Amino acid sequence: MTAATHSTLFPQVPDSADAVLDGLDPEQREVALALGGPVCVLAGAGTGKTRAITHRIAYGVRAGILQPTTVLAVTFTNRAAGEMRGRLRQLGATGVQARTFHSAALRQLQYFWPKAVGGELPRLVERKVQLVAEAAARCGIRLDRNELRDTTSEIEWAKVTQTVPADYPAAVAKTQRDAPRDPAELSQIYAMYEQLKRDRSVIDFEDVLLLTVGILQDRHDIADHVRRQYQHFVVDEYQDVSPLQQRLLDLWLGDRDDLCVVGDAGQTIYSFTGATPDHLLNFRTRHPDATVVKLVRDYRSTPQVVRLANGLLGQARGKAAEHRLELVSQRDKGPEPVYTEYADEPAEAEGTARRIRDLIAAGVPAGEIAVLYRVNSQSEVYEQALADAGVPYQLRGAERFFDRPEVREAGVALRGAARAGGNDSLLDGADDLPSEVRAVLSTKGWTSKPPTGSGAVRDRWESLAALVRLAEDFEQAKPGATLSDLVAELDERAAAQHAPTVQGVTLASLHSAKGLEWDAAFVVGLTEGMMPIAYAKTDEQIEEERRLLYVGVTRARFHLSLSWALSRSPGGRGNRRATRFLNGLRPGSAAVGPRGGAGGGGGIDRGSRTGTSGAGAETPARPARRGPVRCRVCGRTLTEAGEMKLMRCEDCPSDMDEALYERLREWRADRAKEISQPAYCVFTDKTLMAIAEAAPDSEGELVVIAGVGNRKLTRFGADVLAICAGRTVGHEQAERDGEV
């Protein structure tokens, strides 16, 4: 028995409860039949977890065991909730609520607010950035665009971890969180932000959860009302639950345990938002009598892709790694993953675009191909390369399909044509449903051939073409269906946000690709400093980066390509290295990690401008010397004095604290004036940069920075450490003895 990856868009509704179980594998069937008590489903990537839990709900409803209106299924994205509603509808389980945590809480808050508080619910602010900027300004703190984004994210983290402004600095210290700026300043901005919201009677998305929790805690009558309404809970992606969401779930449950959770600790990639896999990993501790089912049969990816995925997690460390799932592919053999090294980033983008064009020419639909990267800023060079190659693309994270203007216009036109029926001259000569749709949409910009190039015109055409393909599938599944039937189907899909597939190569960050899959995935930019990202410093942060790459790898069904560039720009120094996570997995690399890991296999394909030769060749190692200094980002041996002071290559990403650097420069100028010496005699610019990047908090951490040494540590160390700690340093002290 297998779980089909590509099922028809319009399957026949099962004619009985038992028919709902048809096609499930033994473990999925066990999930579907476990309808009582606490249930924990540990589901690896591609193992059919959504299939298992939707069939579980549908079987319970169709068998009369569950009342649909008493079931609440929650997940983390509108897309996932929409997919769940669509699947439940296709299984004949209508009436079940499938929502995100926020949308479920918002409905309850809107309903109970007049009774619990009185009056109307405060207006919901969808984007808090402007309020955060104003709060910072009122505190006399100037934030640039990146700092504003990071500060906003930090406020969101504090709220979902139920940390109030006054406790934020202590929470940062306790969790060893790498705050984007001084915690005291962030606490001040956070407090002012909350004050501005109160003054203007507005709430944000985190408040929706906080206020719902508050009402359910304080009003037992309202909590009882909710518990009578919802008696059976299903939580998808349980590894991403935050402490606040878990608190809300506990209040929904009360003293009951009719709960089914589904997750995979190996796909925990949102800890920066407050998510933690602890609730999943400790589920058996909280519920000793829980039924635990493991899904490891991978129906998505070929054995070659699964082997690499297992190898990645095989080298992992930490608590989540101890609970890793060893996937077993259920598909036929496919091509080995391709590892490609390029001379520079434009060459990497151009080479990727060429390979994508070849795949499309070989019959792989553009909509079944994705380019995945670590940060969104990497997309621009791939957008340009795909446009130059004449390959259509779409950016993941754009507006919802049914919210697009052209889709709304198309819906109005189709609805009008359906009402007019045979009286609409547009439909003259159209002898089936697809031809009717093509005729109507031709007035809105659809043509039988796509427009050349990319941009808004191509995006509009792709949206309309998706509707045409949907009509073709609908006709095939339901012969004789009318235009009115299709309009009704579109209305139901819009309500469920169950969008059809748009044909264009997807460009997406690894985070936004979670939960999606394609026939071919190109995971790009895999250099040290980008994967893992430069600011991932702790073991826990590094392991989350490894899991992020695992998520990217497991998006591929058949074709998987992993690539990196030796330099940022053409002609640049080729001193970058491929990510450490592929060591021991890609050809020509040495194995690392506590357990090694399965070999990834496969050949290596080199880009046209690498300047290297031989499968798996690395940048030539420099002659060994005593005590080599290595780049702390990419690991390359450093030989230039300036780079050795920074402990990184000039081209590698910097995580320097700009504000700290400026404070050090001001202090240096004052000290140089006091001792009547040039500023560089105190510390050179490079040494100051190295200090600002390392932000040492002890003499031991400061003295090892190149350019400091024991003499300058004795003379300037106390001042530097005080500045790094955010304390004010007086400059009236007497000049110390001895040369600088």
TrEMBL record:
One of its GO terms (molecular function) is helicase activity. Residues 654-734 form the HRDC domain. The keyword Protease does not apply. Residues 569-626 are annotated as: Disordered. Its EC number is 5.6.2.4. ATP binds at residues 43-50. It catalyses: Couples ATP hydrolysis with the unwinding of duplex DNA by translocating in the 3'-5' direction; ATP + H2O = ADP + phosphate + H(+). It is an enzyme of class 5 (isomerase). Keywords: ATP-binding, Helicase, Hydrolase, Isomerase, Nucleotide-binding. Residues 303-558 form the UvrD-like helicase C-terminal domain. Residues 594-605 have a biased composition (Gly residues). InterPro entries: DExx_box_DNA_helicase_dom_sf, DNA_helicase_UvrD-like_C, DNA_helicase_UvrD/REP, HRDC-like_sf, HRDC_dom, HRDC_dom_sf, P-loop_NTPase, UvrD-like_ATP-bd. Pfam families: HRDC, UvrD-helicase, UvrD_C. Residues 22-302 form the UvrD-like helicase ATP-binding domain. Belongs to the helicase family. UvrD subfamily. This is DNA 3'-5' helicase. It comes from [Kitasatospora] papulosa.
